[in-house]
Design brief:
Blueprint (H helix, E strand, L loop, with lengths): L5 H8 L3 E2 L4 E2 L6 E7 L2 E8 L8 H12 L6 E8 L47 E5 L7 H13 L5 E5 L7 H4 L18 E3 L2 E5 L14 H13 L8 E5 L6 H9 L4 E6 L3 H16 L4 E6 L4 E2 L6 E2 L6 H9 L3 E4 L4 H8 L4 H4 L4 H17 L1
Parallel strand pairs: 4-5, 6-10, 6-11, 7-9, 7-10, 11-12, 12-15
Antiparallel strand pairs: 1-2, 3-4, 8-9, 13-14
Helix pairs in contact: 3-11, 5-6
Length: about 375
Amino acid sequence: MTQLTEAQVLDALRTVIEPDRRTDIVALNMVGGISIDNGDVTVVIEIDPQRAGRAEPIRHAAENAIRRLAGVRHVSAVLTAHRAPPSMPATGHSHSHGGSHGGGCGGSGGKPAGGPGEGKSPVPGVRAIVAVASGKGGVGKSTTAVNLALALAATGRKVGMLDADIYGPSLPRLLGLTGKPVVSTDGKKMMPLTNYGLTVMSIGFLMPEDQPTIWRGPMVHGALTQLLRDVAWGELDVLIVDMPPGTGDAQLTMAQTVPLAGAVIVSTPQDIALIDARKGLAMFQKTEVPVFGIVENMSYFCCPNCGERTDIFGHGGARREAEKLGVEFLGEVPLHLDIRETSDQGRPIVVAKPDSEHAHAYHAIAAKVARSLG
């Protein structure tokens, strides 16, 4: 079989006409990116925000044009905006990526968007949206988000997860999910993938795992909006959003376009992590999103051989920071090999070892979050 090429995709897209300007979208430089992976094609189409209401037919036409090419298995066209919408700053974006409390061994956020629900549209069928965030990368935020979601699901709630980390999506690996979302029978929505009782959507399902996402801020806004709005979530009690680290475009998109019920901040105990966690917390406060509390991850290490406890990154820093900032300390989770191994295997510890001390720590955190949700 002849391998599908980018040139073939571009030729197909030259048949797609932008109706207002009566010119094809390739000539208008509206094609922002093309990804081809074993017959799975993802195309980014940049649109003028003023024409957003009339852009859906362009997306469908692009998908249909590509679908006619030989060798195509699946097509996804993602609409993004040329420039930031009025509610988002046009400059100064940051793309920085840079358990229970017993603990025994065993940047800037831009202009606030008004009140918590003002000017924000809820996601149909989703009762509450909770952001899990961190000021910096490498603190175990995604692992915490996944295990929190699974612990909430264990209480009988219907829980979904959105991977908002466009630059480094982790949910496919953490939840052992592969494959591409299919389109609903009416052709209007993407169907999320499911595992362990969670309903999941991630840009990682649409892009090859080893391909970097090199997108401008408005493109991130557009992609996140589509992942939120164009997915058939069904009826969910809670949608957990795994945010990227930092205080950039994805955080602003979530804080300013949907009514977040609250945010959970994840940090490690050392001062350098807490400085960044403080910035993340301040961003949510500026956008009037309630902060449910702070989780101290990698709180301590217990030697599996001798049982001796070592506070590798210090200990108790997140608890002290929570007290200083007047938010709840949700709990501490140890640095442990089991958590790392089960995460890498796509079987998070809450489901892989539900009776472990570490799983109980996540359940205790989830209980506090559930209490905040009411």
